Amino acid sequence: MTNQKNVIEAMDMVLQKNVERDILIEIYRAAKIPDWRAVRRLVAYTLRKPVSHFSGLIANLDTIIGRDGIVAAAKYALPELCRPADALGQGGIPASGPLVIASNHPGTYDAFSIISNLPRDDVKLIVSGIPFFQNLPHASRHFIFATHNTNERTNVIRQSIRHLQDGGALLIFPSGRLDPDPSVLPGAVDGLRRWSRSIEVFLRKVPESRLVLTITSGVLSGEYINHFIPRMFKNDHERRRITEFIQVIRQMVRMEPLDLYPKVSFAGPLSGEIFQSGGRDEQSTLIMQKAGQLLDFHMNRFYPGSKLQNAQTEY
């Protein structure tokens, strides 16, 4: 028994070291740090404690996924990172059968906020194919890895359709990029308009699927929105990406939860069969109308009277 425990602990240590390496690689990439050994060693040394702390959390989450499932891991993660998500409409999410969950993507902890409120563990997410995700033994089973390669994109669609045909749940962020967080930034409606037609593709291929539209907010701190570094970038999306990066790095350094209160609204499930009739433009328009109505509901319930409320709901 002791030998088995020692083996498990050794495996956990190896996993954490691998996660540390992958986190540093992602930091180098996101911060565009040049591939100079001395510079990268300095960054790694400076961030050694927060990276070790954060990688320990990620490795622990992977272990929880393998033992208790991804929903339990998401519920564990949120209090470690921010606050538990305040959700509406989660009681209507189908507990079985093919399901597409389509959400805006304000970043950071939106996936944790959504998954923590699901009644099922068979969910898969479409994520970028960076090593950080690929090298997690248990979590990676819940990921479908996307790249910019056209041929591999086709494979992503096939894997997603196969998962739905097997009766699984699929969480997608149809804009394919970071969206404005409706709680602190205008432009959420524009984010919805960027949604790809992937939703219609999945529902046409697996018409017995249900669709649950989702809006998430409250995962990006206003403290970092006004940081001087993001303001150096003219592109809105690049500013949001840098803001998210700064927030994550600051949290790693502080090694404590952020004072954030994620909010999630789930719409009632829509039958995939209603998307079988009409042209593609009609289907896309219907989805945009439903998503816009959900955003309106979300802002009214969670941010009544805020300056951003009216700015988000012109769909």
UniProtKB/TrEMBL annotation:
Annotated ranges, domain Phospholipid/glycerol acyltransferase: 93-186
GO-annotated molecular function: acyltransferase activity
InterPro entries: Plipid/glycerol_acylTrfase
Keyword Transferase in record: yes
Keyword list, A-Z: Acyltransferase, Transferase
Name of this chain's protein: Acyltransferase-like protein
